[in-house]
Design goal:
The protein has one helix spanning 43-52, and strands at 2-4, 7-12, 23-28, 34-36. It has 70 residues and is of the alpha+beta class.
């Protein structure tokens, strides 16, 4: 599991080429903090996520990036 804290960066600039040197403010909202599950202990849950996640092509048996089970 990984903990994430999104940040909002507000940059003031008049010239795109000088943005690296522009004035900026970073805002963090405690309410947006979240924990993402990166691995599941239950194989049935893992399979459920693979079957219903359109971005999990590499984990599917028919996917181009087929991974072998250990």
């Amino acid at each position: 599991m990984h903990k994430y804290q999104p940040r909002f960066h507000l940059v003031r600039g008049h010239d795109v080429l000088k943005l690296a040197y522009s004035t900026f403010r970073t805002y963090v909202f405690k309410e947006t903090e979240f924990i993402a599950v990166t691995a599941y202990q239950n194989e049935k849950i893992t399979q459920l996520k693979i079957d219903h996640n359109p971005f999990a092509k590499g984990f599917r048996d028919t996917g181009a990036g087929k991974r072998e089970k250990k």
